[in-house]
User: Fold HTH-type transcriptional regulator from Metarhizobium album.
Amino acid sequence: MDLPPLVQAFVLHFGEMGSRWGINRTVGQIYALLYVSPEPLCAEEITDALDISRSNVSMSLKELQAWNLVLLRHRPGDRRDFYTTPDDVWQILRTLAEERKKREVDPTLSVLREILMQKPASEAERHAQQRMGEMHVLIEQLTTWYDDVKQLETRRLAMLLSLGAKVTKLLDTKDKIVSLGRVRRTSEKE
Amino acid sequence: MDLPPLVQAFVLHFGEMGSRWGINRTVGQIYALLYVSPEPLCAEEITDALDISRSNVSMSLKELQAWNLVLLRHRPGDRRDFYTTPDDVWQILRTLAEERKKREVDPTLSVLREILMQKPASEAERHAQQRMGEMHVLIEQLTTWYDDVKQLETRRLAMLLSLGAKVTKLLDTKDKIVSLGRVRRTSEKE
DNA sequence: CTGAATTTTCAGAAATTTCTGAAATTCTTG
DNA sequence: CAAGAATTTCAGAAATTTCTGAAAATTCAG
Assistant:
């Protein structure tokens, strides 16, 4: 691996982080390399840059394609495949979130739902179901929010973020209105 | 492993998911088991429930403690340690987020900052730095937002989520005001 | 202090994941 | 369709991670 030291540091760190997130080290390194490369790279170039076997590169690229994380490029009169990453980091994040949701969150929700349908046969099971119900609600809330927010264009998303917890002030207002409304409705009934 | 079938399904799924997120299967299973148990469990009980060695339980519990994910409990006149999880799922999520940030995000930010300080020695390095800069900005934005939001109590956080992208309407307004301001300022200059 | 109960440690075994080289396949072009 | 360039596949090797049993350490009651 003889990359510019600055690039090498990035690639190695990324490989390290990848493996802490359940992504294989090599896949992480390849992604990092593609991410910082000024031009799309072909498999051979990745092999040379990272000092890994050609077949490993092939399998790792397949993996990255399955995750929708890389773009395929071609040069006229050259039948090799060249790989690159999207330019927009926000887009990359969105793709990552989308894929993880599809692979991990959705199946978890359906397992939870299935379990929650069953009839508890003991007090322990009843309690377990109750706990799983709480988890189910949490995940549903998060994914609903995510489905909402993922539609936003980058510019607007950035704005939403920069607003941060300042939204709380708005919430305070809403909060008061809602509770006022509740009080009124309650007193009307009486 | 002879748990109620409903609990077993949950525990196994959780172990599976854990390993996809870089958490060892056993650690995930133990956490799931503690999460749904009506009472705190001692190491011996976990050993029996999950059919793993006592030493494995000991090490996995140590791991969970390092992640601040479990609570230690004692019974009077019994010197065994009993383990449980917090009741509030939101609190669990917060802890998880906090720990991952501390272990993975913060180090990444500091690696990026360090690399960005260096002087690029080539065009390729200049480009790589530019890309890393974009990633750095993204992560900074996300963590700033996170630092903001993590303070919120559960009730308010849930409200923020339920609001979701409806906040966009507010943003639209802000957006218009901002761009109006820009137009005015520009025309004043001319 | 002794000894029983409990927990921790850790070297090596077992299991799992990752990686490689060689062969097979695909694709293009003359 | 033959040849050559590029890619993919996959069985087994290598590396890494996880797990265990045995021994050591800790804790506490008597």
